[in-house]
Amino acid sequence: MTFIVENPLHEGLRVDAVLSMVEQGLTRSQIKQRCKAVRVNKKSVKLSHQLRLGDLIEAELVELNPPNLEPQDIDIQVLYEDDKVIVLNKPQGLVVHPGAGHHPHTLVQGLLYHHKVSQESDPLRPGIVHRLDKDTSGVIIVAKDSYTHAMLSDQFKNRRVEKLYLAILHKPRDPKSPLLTMPETEWYSVRNRIGRDPLNRKRFAVVESDSEASTGRLAVTHFRIRGGSPTSLLAQIKIETGRTHQIRVHSAFLGASVVGDTLYGAKNRDDTLMLHAYRLRITLPNETIPREFEAPIPDRFIRYMEGW
């Protein structure tokens, strides 16, 4: 594929973003999978390279051999379904889609078994608009066709989706922590940048220095405390952005890591991750008023909070 950047709206955008606009039907993640090489003005660049008007782009896209996703009879709890979407309550411990180290037994394979989605739009992640970490439970929405996938993805991209999580946090040791001093009716906001932890590639971290800020991405999280015990807090958490591990990183940043989070908190493996996607507010195709979907509070939360 070869073309010149002539649209003023494309100036300043990343190469992969413009390629996904020109090669309609491909997402940025699909561009990344299929792009063998890319050159701008005859020089090899990364897909994150920002473009200018008049730039000559040469991209070599290859066809992928779709993975053999064998449908599996996985029990899925449906919260809502119509001819465009399906809203599920993802159980803890279930991976959303195949990836590095995770090919068998995923939510996608369960959806394929029950004929809920088609592999036409994305052979590896059919219907997946957003995802939850393996050990995070809760509400997740899946598109049944390419139009719905694009429509829902646009809402996530432009932050028109409201996501509310429930988490049980370790109580901060600092008695002056805002999580301990603010009224229950108020929200405390964390707004900073998150990037890959240079000391541990499996982790992400808050990036604070000016020299590192350019490598991080803006992350905004809001916390409201709804109760607790001498050692733990029950928090409602809203996120404006959807960075990897965002809630877990910001909770640890406040000295209140999520209970059961062995990557960012205490290494007590007796506890399971106490993070649940409780509510999703989003507009469905052919509708103008957003709908709200809720996943019931899981049993592990109820058991943990007994006696509070």
From TrEMBL:
<dbReference type="GO" id="GO:0000455">
    <property type="term" value="P:enzyme-directed rRNA pseudouridine synthesis"/>
</dbReference>
<comment type="similarity">
    <text>Belongs to the pseudouridine synthase RluA family.</text>
</comment>
<dbReference type="Pfam" id="PF00849">
    <property type="entry name" value="PseudoU_synth_2"/>
</dbReference>
<dbReference type="GO" id="GO:0009982">
    <property type="term" value="F:pseudouridine synthase activity"/>
</dbReference>
<protein>
    <recommendedName>
        <fullName>Pseudouridine synthase</fullName>
        <ecNumber>5.4.99.-</ecNumber>
    </recommendedName>
</protein>
<keyword id="KW-0694">RNA-binding</keyword>
<dbReference type="InterPro" id="IPR006224">
    <property type="entry name" value="PsdUridine_synth_RluA-like_CS"/>
</dbReference>
<dbReference type="InterPro" id="IPR050188">
    <property type="entry name" value="RluA_PseudoU_synthase"/>
</dbReference>
<dbReference type="InterPro" id="IPR006145">
    <property type="entry name" value="PsdUridine_synth_RsuA/RluA"/>
</dbReference>
<dbReference type="InterPro" id="IPR036986">
    <property type="entry name" value="S4_RNA-bd_sf"/>
</dbReference>
<dbReference type="GO" id="GO:0140098">
    <property type="term" value="F:catalytic activity, acting on RNA"/>
</dbReference>
<feature type="active site">
    <location>
        <position position="133"/>
    </location>
</feature>
<comment type="function">
    <text>Responsible for synthesis of pseudouridine from uracil.</text>
</comment>
<feature type="domain" description="Pseudouridine synthase RsuA/RluA-like">
    <location>
        <begin position="85"/>
        <end position="252"/>
    </location>
</feature>
<dbReference type="InterPro" id="IPR020103">
    <property type="entry name" value="PsdUridine_synth_cat_dom_sf"/>
</dbReference>
<keyword id="KW-0413">Isomerase</keyword>
<dbReference type="InterPro" id="IPR006225">
    <property type="entry name" value="PsdUridine_synth_RluC/D"/>
</dbReference>
<dbReference type="GO" id="GO:0003723">
    <property type="term" value="F:RNA binding"/>
</dbReference>
